[in-house]
Design brief:
Length: about 210
């Protein structure tokens, strides 16, 4: 029987492309859902995200029981969890986009605007860039992925930083602990690299 993969619908703009990428990577039971009970019972959870930290956290919190369901499934039940782009950022303690907002608090750190010393560098950080794993984290391989973000995680616990990229200095490209992983890049836009990453997530048994 195929696993039930909950792709959380809270108005994130990249839902359909993430759904299609999961199917292309080999998933069978992917459901786009805004139902907390479905998420609570899921075998794997994917939290996508496009937009601003504050708006996304508010939209997620507005779904009845959703934050509690995600936390129950991902923490005590230890279901594999993947956060993508802003979905990764929401795993952090706090975000400063659109004012100051609390995140889920699963990984220490604050999401702040990218401010490179070289003002010639464009912000948002947009386009293909290297993913450089730190040590040998789960699921991640060196390669190129597609990024699109103007804010990045800072002051994270080094033990939770799985990979960096470089845009005017090192920027966090992936975080995680235990059964939780988040990526700043967009696997659904990262062609072979992204599909291979999603395939590893679908087979992951943390």
């Amino acid at each position: 029987m195929p696993e039930f993969i909950a792709l959380i619908d809270y108005g994130a703009g990249n839902l359909r492309s993430v759904h299609n990428a999961l199917l292309a990577a080999g998933a069978e039971g992917v459901s786009i859902t805004d139902d907390a009970e479905a998420v609570r019972g899921a075998d794997r959870i994917v939290l996508p995200g496009v937009g601003a930290f504050g708006a996304c956290m508010a939209a997620l919190s507005a779904l009845p029981g959703m934050v509690e369901a995600i936390e129950e499934a991902a923490l005590p039940r230890a279901r594999p969890f993947l956060g993508i782009c802003v979905g990764m950022q929401l795993m952090a303690t706090r975000g400063e986009e659109q004012g100051g907002h609390d995140g889920l608090g699963w990984v220490l750190g604050t999401v702040r605007v990218i401010a490179p010393a070289d003002r010639a560098l464009k912000v948002p950080h947009m386009g293909w860039n290297d993913v450089i794993p730190r040590g040998a984290p789960p699921l991640l391989e060196p390669g190129e992925a597609y990024f699109l973000h103007g804010f990045a995680l800072e002051n994270a616990d080094p033990e939770t930083i799985y990979a960096h990229t470089d845009h005017g200095g090192p920027r966090v490209a992936a975080i995680g602990r235990g059964n939780l992983i988040g990526v700043q890049f967009h696997p659904e836009k990262s062609q072979r690299y992204g599909l291979a990453f999603l395939a590893r997530f679908l087979a992951w048994k943390p």
